[in-house]
Design a protein that fits this description.
The chain is an alpha+beta fold. It is built from 2 helices and 4 strands, in the order βαββαβ. Strands 2-3-1-4 form a 4-stranded antiparallel β-sheet, with helices on one face. A hairpin with a 2-residue loop joins β2 and β3. α1 runs antiparallel to α2. The longest helix has 14 residues.
């Protein structure tokens, strides 16, 4: 599956979450990531994120699609990080 994921965590946890997310997906901008991922790797990502997060105040949002080709992506302005 192809996912776009973004997180909003407390300042003290940003570094840990960034490092964790980069293990699974491509960083594209600030706390936003995208890429192909298997269901089992997606579960690992979720479990690790929950370990880092304080679920009462932090969030992780994941948008899923079957393949990247089903997603229209438009960039206005500068692209911070290219995955291809």
């Amino acid at each position: 599956m192809y996912v776009i994921a973004m997180y909003d965590v407390g300042e003290k946890r940003v570094g840990k979450m960034l490092k964790h997310m980069r293990r699974y997906l491509h960083w594209i901008q600030n706390s936003v990531f995208e890429g192909e991922i298997t269901e089992s790797k997606m579960e690992e990502l979720r479990i690790g994120a929950r370990y880092i997060m304080e679920e009462e105040s932090d969030s992780l949002i994941i948008f899923k699609t079957r393949q990247e080709k089903w997603l229209d992506k438009e960039i206005v302005g500068i692209e911070r990080s290219s995955i291809g």
